[in-house]
Amino acid sequence: MVPSQLREVLAHFTLRGSIAEISPYGSGHIHDTYFVKNGITGCPNYLLQRINHHVFKNVPLLMDNIEQVTLHLRNKLEGMPGARPDEEVLRLVQTHKHRSFHADAGGNFWRVYLLLEDTRSYDIVENPQQAYEGGKAFGKFLALLADLDITHLHESIPDFHNVESRLRLFETAIRQNLAGRVKHVPEEIAFVQQRAEGMSTICRLGREGKLPLRVTHNDTKFNNVLLDKHDRAQCVIDLDTVMPGYVAYDFGDAIRTTVNKAAEDEADLDKITVDLRLFKAFTEGFLKETSAMLTDEEIASLSLGVTLLPFIMGLRFLTDYIDGDNYYKINFPEHNLQRARAQFRLVQVLEENIETVQHTIQQASTSHRALLLNQQK
Questions:
Q1: pTM surpassing 0.70?
Q2: Which percentage of the chain shows pLDDT scores above 70?
């Protein structure tokens, strides 16, 4: 959209100062995001987003989730010594009608956040300290939301991490073959079908009542943690998918983008390797914040999440490719297939290292629980 149209949208929000400049921002797959530079010194800068209502079909419920979660986080932090709620939690800007979003005449939905200044995010983790801080951030996020009633939240995307549902959609895509692409991906289809039963374990454990539903983020890519200028964790962002889920989902998705030394869509599969130092650091940070709240069954399930989440992402990319690229933004015709192959290669590498993964998780949880017991004595 042109700046004049964006200015018209922004006029519906209670902004301070004046708008000096509007420019595209970030590299997200789903929403259109713009940086709004303030023209008045001392007034905040903003982020404007057009919400993808084709992906998030009920925007009012989505925004209600975000309002509940940010309010809960802010209230919890305000009671903690040394906490900085205004810097550690996203803040939505209200419209003049006291709503968290604006719906325009064209059927688009818009929201505005205060920009958190002097922060950075990383698509590829550079060192164990960053990984540790990311683990702490996502772990603290889960711990702070542990007492938020999950029945108050809506499913912003039903069955988002339900691999059984994803597999059904995948099989439907193969049968329909709308883009005529099934003939190009026999190896990828076989990869999925060989692992389908094993990857459904978390769903089965949940149905059996062995894993509790919690308020989870559900999109814990490492770049959804903002670090400060000293690379310390500051804020978890991108709250669109916060809803009931299993802790293994958040752990697995974070590991997917933390330990892989290559890009999510790396074309050279030989470059996809797992940095076990980063895995250990992230796990230490995550369990430092969560080991007191997690059950033994949840801790055991974390290693299942490590392979499940890159499998799900690869499955989603492959399904979208077969369907004709309707969900994800692509930069070239085979982009979704390239993404799928990269994720499936990551699954293979993680499977090869699964004993080390399990040992690291158990060692970290035992250590942090022992430390908690000593502190309570």
A1: yes
A2: 98
- Are the C-beta atoms of residues 258 and 282 closer than 8 Å to each other? yes
Q: Which two tokens stand for residue 374?
A: 């000593």
How far apart are alpha carbons 34 and 25 in whole angstroms?
5
Phi and psi dihedrals of 2, rounded to 5? Answer: -80, 155
Structure confidence by residue, pLDDT tens digits, 190-227? 999 999 999 999 999 999 999 999 999 999 999 999 99
Give pLDDT, residue 377: 63
Answer yes or no: are the C-beta atoms of 29 and 11 closer than 8 Å.
no
Contact 7, 89 (CB under 8 A): no
CA distances from 327 to 54, 169, 262 (A): 9, 13, 23
CATH of 128-376, one of 3.10.180.10, 3.40.50.1000, 3.90.1200.10, 3.40.50.970: 3.90.1200.10
Residues 98, 117: contact at Cβ < 8 Å? no
**Residue 354: pLDDT over 70:** yes
Contact 260, 346 (CB under 8 A): yes
Q: pLDDT of 155-167, one tens digit each?
A: 999 999 999 999 9
Q: CA 271 → CA 123, 127, 268, distances in Å? A: 16, 17, 6
**How far apart (Å, rounded) are the C-alpha atoms in residues 346 and 265?**
11
The CATH number of domain 3-114 is 1.10.10.10: no
Helix axes 186-199, 296-323, angle to 10 degrees: 150
Q: 29: number of CA atoms within 13 Å, CB side? A: 19
DSSP-derived letter for residue 97 is T
Per-domain residue ranges of the chain: 3-114, 128-376
